[in-house]
Amino acid sequence: MKTLTPAPPLDVSEWLNSQHGISLASLRGRAVMICAFQLLCPACVELGLPQAKRVRTLFAEQDLVVLGLHTLFEHHGAVTKATLEAFLHENRIRFPVGIDRNDGTSAIPKTMQTYNLQGTPTTLLINKQGLITRQHLGHIPDLQLGAEIMALIAE
Amino acid sequence: MKTLTPAPPLDVSEWLNSQHGISLASLRGRAVMICAFQLLCPACVELGLPQAKRVRTLFAEQDLVVLGLHTLFEHHGAVTKATLEAFLHENRIRFPVGIDRNDGTSAIPKTMQTYNLQGTPTTLLINKQGLITRQHLGHIPDLQLGAEIMALIAE
Amino acid sequence: MKTLTPAPPLDVSEWLNSQHGISLASLRGRAVMICAFQLLCPACVELGLPQAKRVRTLFAEQDLVVLGLHTLFEHHGAVTKATLEAFLHENRIRFPVGIDRNDGTSAIPKTMQTYNLQGTPTTLLINKQGLITRQHLGHIPDLQLGAEIMALIAE
Amino acid sequence: MKTLTPAPPLDVSEWLNSQHGISLASLRGRAVMICAFQLLCPACVELGLPQAKRVRTLFAEQDLVVLGLHTLFEHHGAVTKATLEAFLHENRIRFPVGIDRNDGTSAIPKTMQTYNLQGTPTTLLINKQGLITRQHLGHIPDLQLGAEIMALIAE
């Protein structure tokens, strides 16, 4: 039997689409899905983010929290907070999106390092106890993702 | 709170892709999905049956039973058992498919009458206690269907 | 430079969606597209026939004739003229469809033999002079097919 | 009969994916397709640009010139030349893309004004004589676009 790992804190420099900061610790008792993306990543735009929007629409907020995490690890000079804000507006992404912190010491931002994310899009699922049940680079088919999320909600 | 209805017995004249007859009563303890279809129904071919195949692939047989039900209610002269067998072969449908019984007294076959199915494709979900949790004419998005099935499995 | 082959006559036992028989010879001066299909062929139903319907909608009848050809070479006992009629009705295929003649001497019907068709779906394009410019088993992307048809119309 | 309008010069501040500037006048004798887009426009990313890439792949360069035109008319502060360069790289857009000139007097860049473009994506087709045969806001189905381009090539 696999031992699940606790989800480390998100190290986010700023939250968009949210009035206040968001900590995973404060979300215990609810399932959490995080879509780690970059706005210039084609598979994120085509698959990952539309799926996250569908997930947000289908499940109730009290059952499932959906978060975006902008893990910019390439094209740093090409993308600013203003770019991300405009992107979220144009793509009608209304769930909270954290900007993964970059303190200038590495191309890889902090949360991406902590979670050892291998690229974008990555889908993270965290259960009500705050344990990571899924960390997947690439696409998870809708049927499977719906089932995995419901398994967390039903626990 | 909604009271769930027990799933009536399937009145099937013959089962394809199965060595023996199948009764819902014998499936207690497992979730059941039934895809009611007609082989000349475009939405069944495009949406319903491919989805049922994805469901069969994703979930384990001990958790979920997937059945097809050929509820022929139009074009009776155009479709025979041989047509259905060739159709299942060409579309690589390997799960059991029951031929909804027609005793010649009505265009509507027996199970379709009992369940009051309004057309095809219809998706039926039955929980481990044999109660109908879902009867939907048309398409259920994959994300939602995956979640509904997992809710039944997790019960 | 490739020498084009004259399109042999279609050997059709019956035309559906047409008040009268159709001969290629009578269509000189117009481009012709033929979609050779079987109603139980999944790729025909998913790709070939929907594309033929789009082609029929886009181009004017005086510029382009669109024909279906039901080249039944397998599951003979499973498909009758009534099956085909119901299929055309359900799939809203309104262009003429010929039933490729089978005189009982071979599983392969006559026109399929003459054209040496290798399977279904096959797309045939015939120019205004009655020469075959294209015979393709499988799918031709819409962009390319639109261009090829217009090349014939513009000649 | 409709009188066609000559395509005005493109007023571009810089060309990407090209060693040198490009003038429509220099392209006489070849058909030209221009995809006017913004990199934060979802329909451009989902439909317009992938189609332009398919067009570039299908037709020969000597028959058809494919150009992108980045007509930034909103989110000016969010998108720089570096953003566009990274976007083209990530989306593997290899055909020349002009940055529609903005001299700071209007949100609407110069070529967009001259052509009276109403938004993005807009597809422009220009024939061998330099006349505009098509200016369409939104999506043109592949079948139709393939036919329209071939009509220009065949002239």
Index terms:
homotetramer; 155 residues; alpha/beta; Glutaredoxin; seven-stranded mixed β-sheet; 7 strands; 30% helix; globular
Q: Strand portion of chain A, in percent?
A: 15-25%
Order of helices and strands of chain A: EEEHEHEHEEH
CATH superfamily (homologous) name of chain A: Glutaredoxin
Instruction: Quickly name the level 1 CATH class of chain A.
Output: Alpha Beta
Would you report the number of β strands of chain A? 7
Total discrete domains of chain A: 1
Structural class of chain A: alpha/beta
What is the oligomer described by this structure? homotetramer
Q: Cα distance, first to last residue of chain A?
A: 17 Å
Describe this structure in words.
By secondary structure, chain A is α/β, with parallel strands linked by helices. Chain A has a single domain, classed as Glutaredoxin, CATH 3.40.30.10. In chain A, 30% of the residues lie in helices and 24% in strands. Chain A is built from four helices and seven strands. Chain A has helices at residues 42-58, 81-90, 110-115, 142-154; strands at residues 5-6, 12-16, 31-37, 64-70, 97-100, 122-126, 131-137. Chain A has a seven-stranded mixed β-sheet. In chain A, strand 6 (122-126) and strand 7 (131-137) form a beta hairpin. The two termini of chain A are 17 Å apart. The relative contact order of chain A is 0.25. The mean pLDDT of chain A is 97. Chain A binds chain B through residues 51, 54-55, 58-59, 141-151, 154-155, and chain B through 51, 54-55, 58-59, 141-151, 154-155.
